[in-house]
Amino acid sequence: xxxxxxxxxxxxxxxxxALLMPYISSANIACGFHAGDAATMRKTVxxxxxxxxxxxxxxxxxxxxxxxxxPIPLTEPDLLVLLQQQIEALQQICEAMGATLHxxxxxxxxxxxxxxxxxxxxxxxNILHHLYPHLWVYALSGSCFINACKAKGLQTASEVFADRxxxxxxxxxxxxxxxxxxxxxxxxxxxxLTMIQNRQVTTLSGNKIFIAAxxxxxxxxxxxxxxxxxxxxxxxxxKNIGIQTL
Length: 246
Prior knowledge:
By secondary structure, the protein is α/β, with parallel strands linked by helices. It has helices at residues 17-20, 38-51, 76-96, 108-116, 118-131, 144-151, 185-198, 225-238, and strands at residues 3-10, 26-30, 54-58, 101-105, 136-140, 156-161, 200-202, 208-210, 215-219, 242-243.
């Protein structure tokens, strides 16, 4: 039986987090740097416990003004501190609330940088292997980062996106480019089913490329997030595709 993990970026100040929880199996919680704060983290962890959703840390650049979507050059020691401060902030909240941290998924520009830059991906993979060897890492399917994490022996999940378009090199279309976002539920659903059932995605140029799909991201800050989540959840159920945490 086919199955997929449905993950969502949460704790970022949107008012839809509680509405999304029934339709996902794992959550990536902002750790206070690109968005969120301690109170929001506690509230989101509580929702995860209520709905049986796996908890992940979603660290990004310390840049709320740009929502963590602007690249910031950092030395390796500074990068280690950036990740450690955020992940441990959420980990401490989890421990205090009787929850377990399950995975790490990088956010925004940091996510894109490790996906495309092999040397940078290796540096970040080394940091995560050193600090958090027991946690899953969610990484863009087919990217430099997932390859680097696998090489270090980390547990990895190949991540695909319901609401983003793809380039021929398996990278996401940059948000600054036209047609980067999928705006209609029908198109998002068709992309999801093709990725899960056929292990393919159609790129903006019209090519069909291979893609591995372990976990599917539904952006919590998207304008259609709840509609996308409901439709995808119920359609997968109807097609006997399991929804479960890795």
